[in-house]
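Per reviewer request, we include the raw input and output of the structure prediction for the construct analysed in the revised manuscript.
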Amino acid sequence: MTFPDTPQDDVFRPGHLKRLESKCERLELECERLTAEANHLRLAVTSHATIDQAIGALVVLGRMPPEEAWRALRDISQRTNTKLRTVADDMLRFAAGGALAPYLQTELRNAVERYGV
């Protein structure tokens, strides 16, 4: 015995398949949006950690307080028109013994003079 308003009876109602297709499309779009947001958040967390480590390197190398190291890193980024996380990556390579591009060497020297103790 089935009742007239049971879910299996919905299949026979006019427009039911169109409504299901529409719901599926909305769910697909929402899934794509959430995936993009999750990817963006992963990048933000990674970038944040890199920037924090670069601030720590500037604290040690430049003998400056963390607040001033943050200002110096931000200043270098703005003056060279380079993304902050890219500057942070370069600073970490430099702190680990790698080479620093000449334009960044100059900006780092200037920033340490401006913000160092």
